[in-house]
Structure formats: C-alpha cells, structure tokens
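Human: We require from you a standard protein entry with sequence in single-letter code and fold as tokens, and nothing else.

Assistant:
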Amino acid sequence: MLLLMIIPVIPALYCSNYYKCLVVRADEEVFKSVENDAEEITEDLKKKKMKKDKIGFRDRKIIEYENRMRAYSTPDKIFRYFATIKLSHGENHEVYMTPVDFLRAITPGMKQPDGLGLDQYKRYDPKTVQQKLDLILDEDSIFYKLGSSGLITFSDYIFLLTVLSTSRRHFEIAFRMFDLNGDGDVDCEEFEKVATLIRHQTSIGSRHRDHANTGNTFKGVNSALTTYFFGPTLKEKLTIEKFLDFQEKLQKEILSLEFQRKTPDHNVKITETDFTELLLAYAGYPQKKKMRMLKRVKKTFRDSEGISKEDYLNFFHFLNNINDVDTALTFYHIAGASIDQTTLKHVAKTVAHVDLSDHVIHVVFTIFDENHDGQLSNKEFIAVMKNRLLRGLEKPKDTGFIKFMYTVWKCAKETKPALLEI
C-alpha cells in the first residue's frame, strides 16, 4: 500500500525539478542575451565617441592657426583672442579671462569655442557676473586671490605667465639679489623690482608692448595679490617660501583644470592615452611621431587601468625637480648603468622625494621607449619634460626671421668691402 502511494509522487517530483531546470536555463539565456546587448551598446557608444572626437578639416585649420598665435603673437593679441568675458561699467569696460580661458591660452591644440575669438566676448553686468558664471573653483582657489571673482585681468595674465615660465631656482636668486638686509624677505617695493626683472627675462615679457588703444597695458601686480602677499597695510614682508608656495599652488590648480578637462563626467581616473596627450602637449613633435606614440600606448593599455589624480599630480611634483633628476640620470648614464623602470623609480624617490606608481612609470616608458628595449632615452625624455614643466613658455617666440636679419646686418657691418683691401 505504501509503495503504491510513493509511485505517483516520483514522476511529479521529477517533472517539478525538470521545469525548474528549464526556468533556470531560460533565465541564463536571457541574462546572456542582455549581457551581449549591453556589450554591443558599449561598443557602439565607443565607436560614436571616436567619430565625435575626430577633428574635421575646418577645426584642424583653426587649431593650427591658434597654435601659431600662441607661439608667435604678442601677449596682448593672445589675451584678446582667448579671453571670453567683458564686464561693462557704464561707458567703461574691461576684458577678463576665466581660469579655463587661461588654460586654453597656454595649451596647444585646445580650440577656442565657436562664436568667440579676437575681440569677441560674452557681456556681463559686474553685479551679477559671479552668480551667472560657474567657474567650478574651490573656495581656497588661488584665482580668488587675484580678486575679480576668480577672473583674470590682462595684468594678472602677464604676471601668471611670468610665474609659470620661471623656475623656482631663478626666483630664489632674484629674491636674494633684492634682499638688501639679508633676512631672506622682500618688501612690497623690492618685490615690484623682482617681478619686473623676472618678467623682462622671460619671452613673454620681452614680447609685450603696452597697447593703450586696446586697454591692455600692464599695471603691475594687482592690489588683491599685493594684499595677499604683504597684508592689508602692505607693511608685511614676503618670504621666498611663501612665494614659492604660491607658485606651487598655481601649478597644481592648472594641473587640476587639465585633469578635469579630460574627465568631464567627473571620473576618478583619466586614461593612459589622455595622460600621454597631456605629457606631450608641449613637446613640439611632428604629428606623425606623436600619433605613433599614442598608438603604442593605446595598444599596450587596451584594458585601461587608468591614472588617478593623485598619481598625475605626483608625477608633476617629480617634474618640479627635473634638473636634479637630469643630473642623477646623467650620472647613471656615465657610469654605464641602464636607465630602466626600477632606476627611474629610485631616482624619483631619492631626488624628488616622491613615490611614482609602477603603472605611471610603465606608461612613461611605453611613450619614450621607441625600440622596445626596456631602456629610457634620457636625453629626449628630459628635454620633453623640461618643456612640459614650463609649458613651452620659456622658448623664444619668433619665427627666426628677426634673428636671421640681425645676423645678416652684423655680418655686413663686420665685413670690409673687398675694394677697400686693394
């Protein structure tokens, strides 16, 4: 009797398990289908992004023109071209740059937005400009030290370029020159002399001529900045440490703006290709060589690990000591030691006191290791990194024609005509 009761249950249990298996399999198939669809959508988005990122003929020509302007035009014209804000005070008006405008003015290949250009600006009322402009700056941003709601005047522009294009060592020497009592500090008047001396030594300062008709005349360091350096009564002294701290904060803020530009959706990391583009921005390489380097990086890092902001800033802290790094790498080279990834990491640690991540070092070697032998061409690497540190601003900004004409004139002056020798 018991056996007869069990027999009908067995097929029922079997069927129940069978249907459960069918449901599970169906769920797995649906999941796989959804997963495949998601992958296809991701691939389509990547392709669309690549198409979108591709620069057209018109944009390419505009970028080439803007790069020539950055390289050879006067600071006045560069400021008027890349500034985007005009504030009107009744009949008077003044032109300003935003921090992003400033970054665009010093970054090759970064195109000015359509509809804005030479003497073309967005007009704002000074009373409402702070509310209408979203500058995305931290409360303690160095740009707020300039006053003007974080905006940059022409005089600020010249001063900031001078600060960025001058090495820490040169500022230290200039401060010592004008430190008459030897206490290591300078007062407001002495600082004006330091700033003037440094400015005239830079390519920016040597090219600048005041243009009263455009309103772009250099008026010295602005009052908000002098108050920051010397206090409300301008009686405090400015130490070289405080000024170098200002320079470091400015560099860090510009680097942060660059990083944000590559991650508009606020990702935590940038890609290795983005890092390479930022590193080679001021290298002055022919387009073919640059594309070859980018292709090598893309191929090596297909499964992108990414580079965090901390690693990015650490690498540029390492660049601040590039002259000492150059000396250290030269010693290695003279001693016959190879400059591999371990060596570079050791030099960064001992000379610059910074821990570079293995991943960043791997990316750097991928960029500069042309023959894939695992060794760094330190001469090329150092040359590119020095340009990157000073953003190409220390280069002489002329086409070479003026130097050529000067050489011809000098040669003609020193050479006696053949008839006089007879």
